[in-house]
Amino acid sequence: MDDGALMRGRVYGADHDDPGPKPGHAYRELCAGPLDGLLLDVTGWDGEQLAEGAALLTELGRYGPGGRAHYEPRPADPLRWDWAGDSH
């Protein structure tokens, strides 16, 4: 996957009327789990934040509203983040 492929998708947390990626922003593809296929805007994140991954609010996970889906960078492909489970 190249950076161009990340410019075609729906962005996690984006406005419903404007769901696509924005030029000049950096994204990671979320793989598996409740947010599979969405892009996460990581513009401005530092190396430590990118290495940690993210716990993202979602109503679609195991715990419903207020729950979080955890995603971690894929070691062999850091542009893709794999689902690591859900939490409260």
Structure report:
The chain is mainly beta. It has one domain. A hairpin with an 8-residue loop joins strand 3 and strand 4. The radius of gyration is 12 Å and the shape is globular. Keywords: Plasmid.
Lay out the secondary structure:
Elements: E1 27-31, E2 39-41, H1 47-52, E3 54-58, E4 67-74, E5 77-87
Parallel strand pairs: 1-5
Antiparallel strand pairs: 1-2, 3-4, 4-5
Descriptive labels:
mainly beta; globular; 1 helix; plasmid
Overall 3D form: globular
Helix content: under 10%
Which stretches of 5+ consecutive residues score pLDDT under 50? Answer: none
Structural class: mainly beta
> What amount of the residues lies in strands?
35-45%
How would you summarize what this structure contains?
By secondary structure, this protein is mostly beta strands.
